[in-house]
User: Which sequence fits this backbone?
């Protein structure tokens, strides 16, 4: 069973936290164009990971943050953004609220690279000023070797890793009929380009990482990703419990 915060009575939260459960998971992403996959890819994936982790470790899963910092893909239909200062304050308010209700540990599962630096800063503030233990996990970076293991290639934005994972959640979240190589932009070193010339962004010089829509392969990949993230969280929590006041 997974405890979803939004489905719980406040009395149940008070009963469980912190004596029985002291950890909450916060999935964070953005709404952004993803080639031939859905705009919510950066949220659906960390939510799916969060479901697995929450059930495995008996944590509470908070509702996701759907809106983050979208930059180079903002011009593509349906892409939305939050100003960085507003995003930072929003995340800090959530951390402050978690602490107010006696959560001791927060695991932020991030699905979007544009959020990375601000989430890192927020985690530091959450620790220094709010007395929380906070870990931010960028799943696609952590699991880059799994991408190579399963697909034999590196990933990329809306590439083989993200598309493969989101297809495993629901094949309807991507549509191969909308894919063409014209959507792919291979990043040119030493350039900053706005808007991005494509909605599938590859960051290597090998032409690797184009989407794979195979459901079965995606299931293999997503299971391995969840297991790796869960293993990292287990190690972090264990270290906190043993060594950190």
Assistant:
């Amino acid at each position: 069973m997974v405890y979803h915060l939004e489905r719980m009575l406040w009395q149940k939260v008070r009963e469980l936290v912190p004596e029985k459960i002291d950890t909450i998971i916060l999935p964070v992403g953005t709404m952004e164009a993803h080639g031939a996959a859905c705009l919510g890819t950066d949220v659906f994936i960390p939510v799916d990971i969060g479901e697995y982790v929450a059930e495995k470790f008996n944590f509470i899963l908070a509702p996701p943050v759907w809106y983050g910092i979208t930059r180079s893909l903002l011009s593509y239909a349906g892409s939305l953004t939050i100003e960085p200062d507003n995003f930072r304050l929003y995340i800090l308010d959530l951390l402050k609220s978690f602490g107010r209700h006696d959560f001791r540990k927060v695991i932020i599962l991030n699905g979007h690279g544009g959020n990375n630096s601000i989430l890192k800063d927020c985690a530091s503030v959450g620790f220094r000023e709010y007395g929380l233990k906070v870990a931010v996990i960028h799943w696609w970076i952590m699991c880059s070797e799994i991408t190579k293991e399963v697909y034999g290639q590196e990933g990329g934005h809306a590439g083989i890793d993200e598309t493969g994972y989101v297809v495993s959640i629901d094949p309807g979240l991507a549509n191969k009929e909308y894919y063409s190589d014209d959507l792919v932009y291979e990043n040119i070193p030493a350039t900053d380009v706005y808007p991005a010339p494509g909605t599938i962004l590859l960051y290597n010089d090998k032409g690797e990482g184009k989407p794979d829509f195979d459901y079965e392969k995606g299931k293999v990949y997503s299971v391995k990703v969840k297991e790796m993230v869960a293993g990292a969280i287990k190690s972090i929590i264990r270290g906190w419990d043993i060594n950190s006041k």
